[in-house]
Design a protein that fits this description.
- By secondary structure, the chain is α/β, with parallel strands linked by helices.
- The chain has one domain (19-282): Metallo-beta-lactamase, Chain A, CATH 3.60.15.
- It has helices at 75-78, 97-102, 114-122, 153-156, 159-165, 191-200, 225-234, 255-264, and strands at residues 5-8, 22-28, 31-36, 39-43, 84-86, 109-111, 128-130, 135-137, 140-145, 170-174, 181-183, 204-208, 239-243, 271-272, 279-282.
- The strands form two sheets. It has an eight-stranded mixed sheet with strand order 1-15-2-3-4-5-6-7, with helices on one face. It has a seven-stranded mixed sheet with strand order 8-9-10-11-12-13-14.
- It is globular, with a radius of gyration of 17 Å.
- It starts with a strand and ends with a strand.
- InterPro entries: Metallo-B-lactamas, RibonucZ/Hydroxyglut_hydro, UPF0173_UPF0282_UlaG_hydrolase.
- Residues 41-244 form the Metallo-beta-lactamase domain.
- This is MBL fold metallo-hydrolase.
């Protein structure tokens, strides 16, 4: 396993021998640069230097400043060569002020709903599109996965907290020859996730697994270690990437802890936990 390139598919190659390769580069947190079907997508850009923002109020370790870690490249390098941006939701660690400053105002941006589209248009962006089912972008099909839940049922029973947590989509990316990709997004495990996996049978699944928390609850507002093991059993044919760790103050699972867990569960051939800047290539 090379430092800058993780090669997947050793045990799964025979299941998709005709599929073309695509690359997933982990930038930081949930930010990714995906080279897929002759396009380069930037997902959930969180591009500010380390310590630029106050910690999230009402969450553990809020005295710490976000992001907690640096990217391997400056924002201006990260955005080079991108064709479109996908914003799963507009929380600050998925769509930050730095991204709003450095991204070209005419770059196509895909969002989950009209509310997010209106917000991003108000920030000066000219080409904001709501993702639906099989939304086409240069031959790549993008499908919004609705029903994700950015916290527990108990949290969403509190109207004020439910409004704060809001909606966060997942999405599926499909190409004519490429393996299918499911970005699960900021959600706990629920029926919508299971339905998406059963419907699309994705070859690759990216999970946000930092188990971020809010004060007063031990439940996560996104997935954690146990969900990785659950997904590995639920979709054993899939190659899994785990991200959204180390970079925000309220995360309860680090990437080192996840790597240890993956090793203990003997999931190294199925699950990758990339470091910032690393590329996972799916052959």
């Amino acid at each position: 396993m090379k430092l800058n390139k993780l090669l997947f598919g050793m045990a799964l190659t025979s299941m998709a021998t005709s599929a073309m390769a695509f690359d997933y580069q982990h930038i930081r947190n949930a930010t990714a640069k995906i080279h897929y079907g002759n396009n380069t997508f930037l997902v959930d850009p969180y591009l500010a230097p380390k310590g630029s923002y106050e910690g999230f109020a009402g969450t553990p370790n809020s005295q710490l400043r976000n992001p907690l870690i640096e990217m391997k490249q400056p924002a201006e390098e990260v955005i080079k060569g991108i064709d479109a941006v996908i914003v799963t939701h507009t929380h600050d660690d998925h769509w930050d002020k730095k991204a709003q400053e450095v991204l070209p105002k005419n770059i196509p941006i895909f969002v989950q709903n009209a509310g997010d589209a209106q917000l991003i248009r108000s920030q000066g962006f000219k080409d904001v599109r709501v993702m639906g089912a099989n939304t086409d972008f240069n031959g790549v099909k993008l499908t919004r996965i609705k029903g994700g839940q950015h916290g527990s049922d108990e949290m969403y029973a509190n109207p004020q907290l439910a409004e704060l947590l809001g909606d966060a989509m997942g999405f599926v990316m499909q190409g004519k020859d490429e393996k299918s990709l499911y970005i699960v997004g900021d959600t706990v495990w629920n029926e919508a996730v299971e339905q998406a996996v059963n419907q699309f049978k994705p070859d690759v699944i990216v999970m946000n697994t930092g188990y971020a928390q809010i004060n007063g609850s031990t439940d996560g507002i996104i997935m954690g270690k146990d969900d990785v093991a659950k997904m590995a059993k639920f979709r054993p044919q899939a190659e899994i990437v785990t991200v959204h760790m180390d970079a925000v103050n309220h995360g309860a699972v680090t990437s080192d802890e996840m790597r240890q867990f993956v090793k203990q569960q003997q999931l190294e051939k199925q699950v990758a936990v990339p470091k910032e800047g690393q590329v996972v290539s799916f052959k």
